[in-house]
Automatic annotation (TrEMBL):
Pfam families with a match to the protein in the record: Actin (PF00022)
Name this polypeptide is given: Actin-related protein 6
Similarity annotation: Belongs to the actin family.
InterPro entries reported for this sequence: Actin, ATPase_NBD
Domain of life assignment: Eukaryota
Organism: Clavelina lepadiformis
Amino acid sequence: MFAENTIILDNGASALKISQANTDIRILPNAIFRSKTERRRNFISNQIDSCKDYSSLFYVLPFQKGYLLNWDVQRQIWDHVFGKEVLNLRCPETNIVITEPQFNFTSIQEAMNEIFFEEYEFKSILRTNSTTLSCHQYANENQDEDCCLVVDTGYSFTHIVPYYKKSKIVDAICRIDVGGKSLTNHLKEVISYRQLQVMDENYVINQVKEDACYVSMDFYRDMEMCKLKGKENKVLRDYVLPDYAQIKRGYVKPLDEISSNSKKTKSQEQMIRLTVERFTVPEIIFNPSDVGIPQMGLAEAILHSISKCPKEHQPHMLRNIILTGGNCMFPNFKERLERDVRCLAPDEFQVFITQPKNPTTYPCEGGVTWSKTQEIQEHWLTIEEYQEGGQAACARQFNDI
């Protein structure tokens, strides 16, 4: 059974997703922030909630280009999360499931092993990928299926990972170098070029992206609509920026309040007008070449990954595609991807895509599900086994999961 002393830590490049025993999953920022108004203070992870002004936040991130490189920052965040303010863990009595990126570097894996065993002294650890946890959750929900293909579109990358009987088909894994960070950066550049200098406003523009952007089901039709004037332009939206006095978080103005008549605009509101940016930014995941990234789009990458799987598994992969990660929460994401994959897939095969209720926490849910089974017992590595076998024991234990 899932013990009280087991935690699941999905250690993403942008956010930590944590489940402790049977408590609700918590999502905390995986960063240290500095505010221009409170320069002397660092906000570690969820301490950012107490910041009064989110404008021009300076981010210090432990991850660079998808991999954990800044250990000092990550240690401060883990110390905060494991400490009294958040989880209040007694590490020597605790088991931990910790996620890492696909194809993680050996030096990073060894550093993680040392920190969790030698410094925090966890009772036992299991180091795996978030897609593996998603696979276990899906397998639990669909026990008659042996195959699944996990699409994990996160902060730094988008990975496509096929599984057969909960084992990765390593040679068929695909990666697209587009993630949430790329989309936010592109939106910052477009708004800064056309309207307002926002290159330092990571936090605010990320909210603009989440609140206003969507995936187009007909790209050229939406482009034509953006040429229209007034109420005929159904894409046009005004986004009211926060001033951190009256407005704590920005928001999209209702369509009926949009007007070229300045009398309808409150004098204290600072707004940006969004048209093509609303759908051209998420489009990068489907067509990375739009911004000069010479890679396949998501639908093509899925078919390419499936083509590298054994032929008898391919039809099963197509009907068991799972979407995880924050980017798939854009409106129309699932419908657009299902349509694009259907166009490329052989006619005789079914295409079915599952989007969980919360794609961001789905891997963490999978970790909880897996932890309740006897099957996980063989994958734990205890601190005694580490002390006896060192890094070689970790390499053997975590090689295939």
